[in-house]
Specification:
Layout: H1 2-14, E1 29-32, E2 35-42, E3 45-50, E4 53-56, H2 62-83
Antiparallel strand pairs: 1-2, 2-3, 3-4
Length: 87
């Protein structure tokens, strides 16, 4: 019986319980360089749409959405400066 029960318990310990969906942002926004962006919740977490591109927030908080937005904007500016493409 131990040979049957042990693998089943071991397998059950490896399976993670389903994650709960993130809380709704309730109309929260994030602002950067004078522009305001709406935060939306998806089943994978919060995100901000920037010029038609989804930017995922690290955690479902306004602070993390701000830093994700800021890092995205900084990366885009760096890419544009390398390419010589102003926009």
């Amino acid at each position: 019986m131990f040979r049957v029960l042990f693998p089943a318990l071991l397998l059950a310990g490896c399976i993670a319980p389903p994650e709960t969906p993130p809380p709704p942002p309730n109309g929260a926004t994030v602002s950067h360089l004078g522009e305001t962006y709406q935060i939306e919740a998806t089943r994978y977490g919060w995100r901000v749409d920037v010029d038609g591109y989804p930017v995922s927030c690290r955690k479902p908080t306004v602070k993390d959405c701000y830093w994700s937005l800021r890092n995205y904007r900084a990366a885009q500016a760096k890419i544009e400066s390398i390419d010589g493409n102003p926009g």
